[in-house]
UniProtKB/TrEMBL annotation:
Catalytic activity: ATP + protein L-histidine = ADP + protein N-phospho-L-histidine
InterPro entries (alphabetical): CheY-like_superfamily (IPR011006), HATPase_C_sf (IPR036890), HATPase_dom (IPR003594), His_kinase_dom (IPR005467), HisK_dim/P_dom (IPR003661), HisK_dim/P_sf (IPR036097), PAS (IPR000014), PAS-like_dom_sf (IPR035965)
GO CC terms of this entry: membrane
SUPFAM superfamilies linked to this entry: ATPase domain of HSP90 chaperone/DNA topoisomerase II/histidine kinase, CheY-like, Homodimeric domain of signal transducing histidine kinase, PYP-like sensor domain (PAS domain)
Predominant cellular place of this UniProt entry's protein: membrane
Phosphoprotein recorded as keyword: yes
Record's keyword annotation contains NAD: no
The protein's name: histidine kinase
Length: 562
């Protein structure tokens, strides 16, 4: 009695397990006829246990799954082991779902039951696999798209590089083509002025010089902006004196301020360092533009240029340069785009102030290159204040403790007395023999004129090859040259190749490069070729005279003590 109850409990427990199982469990004959089904068949396949009784398993499968199912039965009989396969079950409503069949053979058949088949729904697995396949396909598509984009980007970058290279070459050639004739215009007008004693001619020549200088400034602004955009504008931060930079700017623009009856005043407030870490040439260019604009747009009153230290810590020292005027001012609308290229406060055809609208654009870019900030405050008809704030570095020398106010308005410009060119050469204290190498006839004549005025003997060559031949001939005749002025861009043989050849032959005489290319890298290229120094066109007489004198004196001293 007890064993019968125990058997009943086990059977009841098994029935409950099958009832709550999601898997469909079938008891089947060797031929696949269903003799018993778990209750889950109704919820899973839509068949009741009574309806499924006596059906062949193939009746509940899709047509394509019958043959794999029979093969599964056959393999299970032959091997005597459990077999797993995937089938598609056809529900009572004719919908289909994928299932995994685990077919287990019984060791002893019971009422013709030979196999127990456990069917597990694998729809979610298939769904996941489909999603995974779709994801992988999308990933492959994305990778193909990325490769295509990468190819397009490389092609675009290549085109940009080619365009930049072409623009850079054009910029270089344009610089040369513009600066060379400007050298002739500026140089010959200077020479003509010095050789003329008539006041009327002096006035006309000054007009030519003034307009030539203005044109050169416009050209420089355009080229500088192009260099910055190309990333070819170098800034070198070195020790420099802010007071020296300010004095040079104030001295240069005092005559223009005096012409308009303006007071030009410099204020050095609070404590400022004697030296700062910056690029003196670029800082001067910034202040030049700001002071020039202040004078240009001010008809009466005063121009204040101020230097003040606004903060100092262990990490930075901020120095501020302020240029304030009492001019026409700038409207709030224009202030929003004041640094845009070609922007002018008044762009009408009848505007009283001319200009290209490039000055502030260039100034803004230069201040950014210096690592600073340019700001402006302005009121129409009252004036403007432009402020340049720079981090000048903490490694500076002693601090100037006292403030000063310098009024440049009272300073008088020294009158220029033209040299006597009526007869003989003016006494400059120079002597020596110079080889001038320049391919442009007008520039050769101009430099020959200026060098002759210095009291020097001049021999000319039109290219590097001819220069080497003349140099070797002079050496063989024991009439050596004391200095060479070498243009760097010439036909047949350029100045770089000619200079390298001379240095390879151990000739140590000074070679001064004269070129229309004015980048710092151009200067370094000249020095790398063996040049002693560098002059950028156009070259004015006093600049040329100072450099020639310096190198001739060094050569003569070397000869004297050798």
């Amino acid at each position: 009695m007890k064993s019968r109850q125990t058997g009943y409990c086990k059977n009841h427990f098994c029935e409950q397990m099958l009832k709550f199982s999601n898997d469909v469990v079938l008891a089947m004959t060797e031929a696949g006829r269903i003799l018993m089904a778990s209750p889950s068949i109704e919820s899973a396949w839509g068949w009741s246990t009574e309806e499924s009784f006596g059906k062949n398993i193939c009746d509940l499968l899709s047509e394509a799954s019958c043959e794999p199912c029979l093969h599964c039965f056959s393999e299970c009989v032959v091997s005597g082991n459990s077999v797993v396969c995937e089938l598609v079950v056809k529900r009572e409503d004719h919908s289909c779902n994928p299932y995994e069949l685990a077919l287990h053979p019984l060791e002893k058949s019971y009422e013709d039951v030979q196999f127990i088949g456990i069917f597990r729904d694998i729809s979610e697995r298939f769904k996941f696999q489909d999603q995974q396949t779709e994801y992988l396909e999308r990933l492959k598509q994305t990778r193909r798209e990325l490769k295509r984009k990468e190819f397009e980007l490389k092609s675009a970058l290549s085109m940009v590089e080619q365009a930049n290279q072409a623009k850079s070459e054009f910029l270089t050639n344009m610089s040369h083509e513009i600066r060379t004739p400007m050298t002739a215009i500026v140089g010959y007008s200077e020479a003509l002025k010095e050789s003329s004693n008539r006041t009327e001619q002096h006035d006309l020549i000054e007009i030519i010089q003034r307009n030539g200088d203005h044109l050169l400034q416009v050209i420089n602004d355009i080229l500088d902006i192009s260099k910055i955009e190309l990333g070819r504008y170098e800034v070198r931060k070195e020790d420099c004196s802010p007071l020296k930079v300010l004095q040079e700017v104030m001295t240069a623009y005092q005559p223009k301020a005096a012409e308009k009856g303006l007071q030009l005043v410099a204020n050095i407030q609070e404590t400022i360092p004697v030296t700062i870490q910056s690029d003196a040439a670029r800082l001067k260019q910034v202040l030049d533009n700001l002071v020039s604009n202040a004078i240009k747009f001010t008809d009466n009153g005063v121009i204040h240029v101020e230097i003040r230290e606004i903060t100092q810590s262990n990490f930075e020292r901020l120095l501020q340069f302020n240029v304030a005027d009492t001019g026409i001012g700038i409207s709030q609308e224009i202030l929003k785009r004041i640094y845009d290229p070609f922007t002018q406060a008044d762009s009408s055809a009848t505007r009283p102030y001319s200009g290209t609208g490039l000055g502030l654009t260039l100034t803004h870019k230069l201040v950014q290159l210096l690592g600073g900030k340019l700001s402006v405050q302005s009121t129409v008809n009252q004036g403007s204040v432009f402020s340049v704030t720079l981090n000048v570095g903490i490694q500076t020398s002693q601090i100037r403790q006292s403030g000063r106010r310098l009024d440049y308005s009272s300073k008088k410009t020294s009158s220029h007395t033209p040299p006597d060119v009526s007869g003989g050469r003016p006494s400059t204290g120079m002597r020596g023999r110079v080889l001038l190498v320049e391919d442009t006839l007008e520039i050769r004549r101009l430099f020959s004129f200026m060098l002759s005025k210095m009291g020097l003997e001049v021999v000319t060559a039109s290219n590097g090859k001819q220069a080497i031949e003349l140099f070797q001939e002079a050496e063989s005749q024991e009439e050596p040259y004391d200095l060479i002025l070498m243009d760097m861009q010439m036909p047949v043989m350029d100045g770089y190749e000619a200079t390298r050849f001379l240095r390879s032959q151990n000739h140590q005489l000074p070679v001064i490069a004269i070129t229309a290319h004015t980048l710092i890298s151009d200067r370094e290229k000249c020095l790398a070729a063996g040049c002693s120094d560098y002059l950028g066109k156009p070259v004015k007489y006093n600049v040329l005279s100072e450099m020639v004198s310096r190198y001739l004196n060094a050569t003569l001293n070397l000869q004297k003590y050798s």
